[in-house]
Amino acid sequence: MRMCTPSSGIGSRTPSWVSSRRIFEQTLMDLQKCSNIKHLKEMQAQIMKANLHQDPFVAPKLITAFSLCRQMPLAVKIFNGIQEPDVHLYNTLMRAFAHNSQYPQAFSTFFDLQENVLFPDNYTYPILLKACAGGPHHLLLRQVQMIHTHIEKFGFYSDVFVPNSLIDTYSKCGQLGIVSAKKVFDLMPERDTVSWNSMITGFIKMGHLEDAHALFDKMPHRDMVSWNSILDGHVKAGDMNSAFQLFQTMPDRNVVSWSTMVWGYCKTGDMDMAKFLFEKMPVKNLVPWTIIISGYAQKGCTKEASSLYDRMEGAGLRPDDATLISILAACAESGLISLGKRIHLKIKRSKFRHSTQVCNALIDMYAKCGNLADATSVFEEMKERNVVTWNTLLQGFAMHGSGERALSFFSRMTREGIQPDGVTFVSVLSCCSHAGLVEEGRHYFCLLKKDYGTVLQIEHYGCMVDLLGRGGHLKEAFDLIKTMPMEPNAIIWGTLLGACRMHSNVELAEEVVDRLVLLEPKDAGSLAIFSNIYAAAGNWDGVAKVRSKMRDVFKQPGASAIEIDDEVHEFKVSDRAHPQSSRIYHMVDRLKQHLKQVGYVPRAHY
Hints:
The chain is built from 33 helices and 2 strands. The protein is mostly helical. Among the domains are: 385-455, no CATH class; 559-597, no CATH class. The protein has a two-stranded antiparallel ribbon with strand order 1-2. Strand 1 and strand 2 (567-572) form a beta hairpin. The longest helix is centred in the first third of the chain and has 17 residues, at 137-153. Pfam families: E_motif (PF20431), PPR (PF01535), PPR_2 (PF13041). PPR repeats lie at residues 86-120, 192-226, 254-288, 289-319, 355-385, 386-420.
């Protein structure tokens, strides 16, 4: 069949089928860069008509193109149409499944490859290891160990590409994994720079900075990744002095190097140094702008954050979703609603349609700043919502005690066909707790186990203990803790202790405190609550005993924050550092007098 007529000219004529295939290959390469499914299906029809669907060069490209368009059934159909698929085609399908987060299917394809008596090549195992890394975390180590056995069996240690992938994936398997990664590294007959960098990055990920540095010092050749990895390790450890010394000795620096340092100083609260390095940067992309703006927003510095945001836009950089989400998260954390509102206004005015994730970040920001009306407004205006959207709004209701409204939205969520997850029920149970809806809480706790088949997490038990404790059902809460399939942590026991204080149950409080001291011997918070329980009961001998125990422990002072005129002010207990502290305490004294006049009597305390 002639697909096209070759142009006339001197010399040998290229066969028409070769020309046709080249045209199709070029078209498929272009299609891999886009998501035009209609165009792709048209091309598939032409390929089938030209009988090129069995072609060993065309078929893999077509499978890849369909996988990039999230059309895996069509990709599988192409694969199944090949009479004798080779290992390259199997690898292509495995990679397609991994790209679409269909990890079990990637493994199934690997097993099919073996059943068809085909031998894996040096690309098979790295693809399979990537599929492992994206799958269930609790299965990760076992799966990697299984693949490791295959790699040793078929002798792929000599191909540096394969053990490099093994080191990288083992490094994602926790402390046991990093030990295995080091064994692989030590057994490698040949290492390249990627081998060293993967091992260093793995050590840093696990917090083993000394091991990472020892390896870094032994490296025969260091590249930019090596320097940036070890720099990142010092920054994550909070050792900014060593990080700065290392930064100064670097033979070359890129945007990642500078951004890492700016992020480190923002993280430690040294905004002056962060700003100094930011201004020194020779080249800035969205990443350092996002870091510095988020850093100021986190500190509650509206003017600085807003000014930098304007400068970023003035430099011709349009914030992407990652930038907006990061800045909005910082606003939510610090309660900086003014900057959050300003960003929201810019989003509304822009012609670009932002993602569901950005809208979720807006809901979170408004909810954490106490503005449930605007949070709900953003929710209602969204064209597409996912389970995170609903969870974020429900968490906002829970945070501010709007229990009835939260349950109403939960009912609406199920009516609209959104499947609740474990996080949803944490919010629902928390709402029931804060609203005093004990029976409703019991109902949803049972629903969680029976109707939704969700595995109960420690957070669900914590919500139930809080719900029962607030409602005065202390024995039931204590019995529930005893039936937990996991070991109760300090948060669980601390929640019950708070309920003991609320309902003046000294006997149970004594038992709970013993458990808490075993878990957190250096935490004075539980002892302070216990002392208040004794004081409320008039047991001053008990108060004296607890106070003597508290001499050797430290209690982190509580803090509150408020935003006034685009600036967040933070206050600690007995804090007189604020320049207007005299006026503030004068107002506090007036409020105390007013409370006494209306009959408020404070609880007794030590």
